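Thread: Modeling a multi-component assembly for a lab meeting

Hi all, long-time lurker, first post. My supervisor asked me to bring a structural picture of a complex we are working on to next week's group meeting, and I have zero experience with this. I have the sequence lines for every component (674 residues in total). Could someone generate the structure of the whole assembly? Inputs are pasted exactly as I received them:
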Amino acid sequence: MKTDEMGALPLANYTINDVAKQAGVSKATVSRYLNGHFERMSETTKARLKTVIADMHYVPNHNASALKSKRTHQIGVVVGDLANGYAPYLVKGIAAITQPLGVQILVAEGKTVAQERDVLLNLLSQNVDGIILQPRSPHAFDYQFLQDANVPVMLVDRLIAPLVFACVTSNDRQATNILAQAVLEKGYQQVLVIANPLAEASVRQERFDAWQNVGQKMNVPVTLLEVDDDEVDDLQTWLTRVHDQKAVIFAANGNLLLATLKWLQHHHITIPETVGLCGYDDWHFGGLAAPALTVVNQDLHQIGETVAKQLMTLIAGDDITICRTEIPADIHMRQSV
Amino acid sequence: MKTDEMGALPLANYTINDVAKQAGVSKATVSRYLNGHFERMSETTKARLKTVIADMHYVPNHNASALKSKRTHQIGVVVGDLANGYAPYLVKGIAAITQPLGVQILVAEGKTVAQERDVLLNLLSQNVDGIILQPRSPHAFDYQFLQDANVPVMLVDRLIAPLVFACVTSNDRQATNILAQAVLEKGYQQVLVIANPLAEASVRQERFDAWQNVGQKMNVPVTLLEVDDDEVDDLQTWLTRVHDQKAVIFAANGNLLLATLKWLQHHHITIPETVGLCGYDDWHFGGLAAPALTVVNQDLHQIGETVAKQLMTLIAGDDITICRTEIPADIHMRQSV
DNA sequence: GTGAAAGCGCTAACAC
DNA sequence: GTGTTAGCGCTTTCAC
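Re: Modeling a multi-component assembly
Sure thing. I ran the full set together rather than chain by chain. Output:
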């Protein structure tokens, strides 16, 4: 290995052996130093190593240490759609916990169950220490291979049945209940819930159930419109049917809320005069729309932090109970209903 | 290693040795198979390995192969703020290129130059094959260590001087020029440009320069308000000063645009009657605001794809010219001016 | 066309 | 308190 006399030297190619030689100790000692095993290391060697490592700009090779220690200090985060307003806040919440710990985040997108499986397998082969997954499928058997792989897994946003991994979501049922109650008290006679296919995710079902329950209690009919691709043209039919009643639309997620808002604006349907609009997740700009939107806002940052903390616990080898942790969502009553 | 008779077996702990033994070949042959070196492999062993690997659910250990081959198939992506509307679309664009290639993305956030340095060093120690960086600092010397590390680096969104790494941005100067021209043709007599500190990023300067040039040509004074933290209270002063003139505000990025819009709404200042508003990056909801916003919209997905492609070229060992690639932005003229 | 063997850079017993 | 040593699972010459 080259010696350097000329100042700032390449952050490069030095190995633990070079450091050991330079410091006049064995590489075991260097390794101990690097891993913070100072229990019975003399202050002198400690100090010496500190300066030598700094001088050499030595950077340990993670791959080698991971190979040996079986710890990569990397976790995988798999979301359904990276550009969905959900993902960034979630990832930021996760990063707030992991980054100070020196744990890196591998993000990947699983747009279909098959693609999700691919990226998960890929993540496993990278030996990630753990995985945070917004699952595409509600069925545990689709994730059998994850259980078999014996890697810590946390779910976020969606549940699977049976619940074989711990999960963090918001309090969907409760929050939707409160919103529904508040909205229906304004005297609406018809409700349309626009959602992606309920069967694919149990929280969707919960949000719909909440409306049904409140609707029943207050004697207001609740209609369901399941759409697959944020294409909301079908709401024309419903609008026609209820045109002489005071009606309100609930869009069950942020994308649908936006799609619906755009559709209504495009068709020059006034909100809330002709039809009321409320929904889930305005990603900080519901207040800017015309009119400002009444919404349930999930605390994504908190969800991310919580799921990351629980994953870190699992990775540390401590058990946690396999259950759903619910993070309270905020409800913003504004002018769109 | 256990043999399995009972169907789906743990995706686990099999090594290349196990596969070799099971297939009755040497691990060298298995390795060749895994890496697609079929040049002179008999069809029979090829077929045999295929089935054995599938049967065993063997998954190669990336850390081991990375240690030996010096290729991790991971790239680092460092952005200033993960929750900024910029990041998700960019990352998605990058993922569109890398995911099919089996290249994983390590995302990290660099909120300050110091933190950015930390995460970059961390990334280097993970032996990422390359780095995409939205640089916090405009000075190349802050990234000397990256050059020394001899790792492929691509910049995105912002330049550094001298330009020692290739970079992908939008056509800031040109797009802003077109917008400015179109806006001023509406007869505005005063312009306020709200931006984060210009000195920190040359594209900010470009956007301001564009306004200055157009303003000069059309004889309209252009004022600059530099704010540090999306706190736009100071625009009160300017508004008072120009209250009897037809005035327009240009917010130089999406966050500032939102902050400004919120501030104006909060102070019940009508747009565009009292003051016009336009800006950069509405992240798909500028059309929903009241009134719909006139903006320059960067093609973030395209930027992400482009920067990822160029990085892949660099990683493949091919040279690219160190220059700035500009992706045309869209200009949306709407009702806010 | 395939195998043997030498490491990649690190960790963790186990010595002393 | 520190050194010796045996691998972790893979890739890649170099033989044959």
